[in-house]
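Figure 2 data, in text form.
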Amino acid sequence: MSEEKKEKVIIMSTTGPENPEKATLAYVMANAALAMDAEVIVCLQADGVYTVTKGVYEHIKAPGHDPIKKHVETFLSNGGRIFLCIPCCEERNITKEMIVEGCELTKAGKAIKEILGANVVLNY
């Protein structure tokens, strides 16, 4: 008996501490999709990279939500994947050591490959 292929969700986020609610909602949706047994990848570009940058992500909290740190840790511990745009990190002087463990530094080609195989792409 063959195993059914999981639904695949990609969540693109360019939002960081400047809009904590929008940044948090990307992870709320990502965690919800994981809970529904989907394969989920969060792709961070522009200021979205700050949502997994040590020293910053601990301080992002939207009213009515847990701190983004908790959302990120839950997402990663439940098998979610997070891609960070290498040029976006370089532009912001964010080094690999500053990024939460478990995140992957990538360039556009890898993200596009995953997007082409996704059932749905959400943008935040």
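Caption note: The first strand starts at residue 8 and ends at 13.
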